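Contributing new complexes? Match this layout with calcium ion.
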Amino acid sequence: MQTLTAECVLDAKAILGEGPVWRAETNDLVWVDIESGEVSCFNPSLGHNKSWKVGEKVGLAVPALNGDLILGMTIGLVRLDLQSGNISPIIDPEKECVNNRFNDGKVDPEGRLWAGTMGLDEAPNVGSLYRLNRNLSIDKLFGDVSISNGMAWTADQKSFYYIDSPTRQIAVFDCDMDSGTVSNRRLAFELPEGMGYPDGMCIDNEGMLWVALWQGWGVGRFDPSGELLSKIEIPVERVTSCCFGGQNWDELYITTASRDLDQSGKLEQPLAGGVFRCKPNVSGPPTNLFLG
Ligand code: CA
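Output block (do not edit by hand):
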């Protein structure tokens, strides 16, 4: 097992930093602070971080082809115009579930947004995974999810990896990318003891999975059978998500949280809530833009 290190590139002191996604067009990282209801674009080469307050908890922000961001919130999926700061609703598949919010989401190679929900109080099995289509209709993929988190598709688009965090498992489905459906859910692997809970996830160009370790002080690189190949050590206990970015897609950007830390915890983890970067000697696939 190889140990890697990461540098803090943005000492953001976010409460619940999450959802990193790289934009090639603007060479920056979109990320959210869920608890603060803030969406940010961070340009590492300029060292500039611009934020938008969106007025409620925001679980995901992904770039659309036209330059807008699609957000997932308690009020459903909405569109944020970065020029004007205006927010317009798209659709809310859980109008009846006022205690739910959107959590992690990712755009598939066909330009559709897959996004999951969870209870605001983290109640078990009240969430679902949805697919927002390019024509802005929405389909439910499955329910009985507790905290919908990481997702990744294999390069051949035939398998879909998925994390419902409290299970401590990485599940794998057969995927039909034409129809955007998944079937035959089974266990890929469970996190080894002592590594915390799996949170956000991405896949590299060698088909290996990078899993953010909530309460696990880092990011693990696993082969699909669960062998731990490398670990990026992060000086923060709650590591939330990761994505490939940079001009050559060979940098891993990592978000973290400072939530639940008391005063001594904050002293021990001064970079909690920061954004980190690691060069892991492998690249990942480019970000898919939402095509709706
Ligand atoms: Ca998450």
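Reviewers usually confirm one structural detail per submission. For this one: The chain has one domain: 2-278.
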